[in-house]
Amino acid sequence: MLLDMFFPRRCVGCSQMIESDKAVCDACLMNIRFSYDDFGTKSELWAKCNLLFPLENAFALMIFDEVGLGRELIHQLKYDGIESIGKIFADWTAQRLNFGEDKPDLLVTIPLHPKKQRIRGYNQLHLYAEELSKFYDIPFDHQALKRVKFQRKAQAKRNAEERKIKGQAFALNKDIRGKHILLIDDVITTGNTMSAAAWELLKNENKLSILVMAVDL
Description:
Belongs to the ComF/GntX family. Residues 163-207 form the Phosphoribosyltransferase domain. It comes from Bergeyella cardium. Residues 2-34 form the Double zinc ribbon domain. With 217 residues, the protein is an alpha/beta fold. Strand 8, helix 8 (192-201) and strand 9 (207-215) form a beta-alpha-beta unit. The protein has two domains: 1-31, no CATH class; 33-152 and 162-215, Rossmann fold. It contains eight helices and nine strands. Helix 5 runs parallel beside helix 7. Strands 1-9-8-2-3 form a five-stranded parallel β-sheet, with helices on both faces. Strands 4-7 form a two-stranded antiparallel ribbon. It has a two-stranded antiparallel ribbon with strand order 5-6. The longest helix is centred in the middle third of the chain and has 12 residues, at 85-96.
C-alpha cells in the first residue's frame, strides 16, 4: 500500500523494515519470552491467582520482563496508540493456546475507566478479544463488567486472610449465569484488578478462567 511505501513498519527490536502485519522481525521474535504455559495445567500464573479467587485454568502469552520486547510492545499498545498490536498478540495467542475439552463459553475483557478510554480512544483489550473470538468461535462481551467508584472487600476461599482491594472495583453489568467465562487482561502483577473482576463474574454459578497478555512473576 502507498502508506507502507512512505511509512514502512519497522521492527520494535532492531528497526529493520518488516511487513505491515508484524510487530517484530523473525529474529527478534525469538527474543520475546513466551510463557509456553499449557491452559490445562497448574502453572505459576494459576497458582498465583488461585490464592485470590477460585479458577479453572490460566494462560499468559508472555513473561513481563523489566526490560524487553514484550514489555515495549504492550507499552506501544496501551500508550502509543498502536491498537493493531492487539491483533498481533491475538495471532500469537492462537498459535499457542489450546483449550482442549475445556473451551470457555464467553470472553470478557477488563473495562477501562471511561475517562481513560476517552483519552486513549480505545480499550487495548477489545481488538485482542475480538480476534480471539473469531479464531476460537467464542462470543465476546465488552460490557459484561463496569467499573464502580466504591471500595469493596473480597475474600478468596482458599485464603483465610481478608484482602482489601482499593480502587479496582467492578460490578456486573448483565445477568450472566452458568457460563465458563474467560476473563482477559493485559498484564497481571499483584492480581488485585483481576481478583476484583473475578469475584463479580463468579456470581450466578459461573466458572472462571483467565487469559493475560503477560504475567509479572
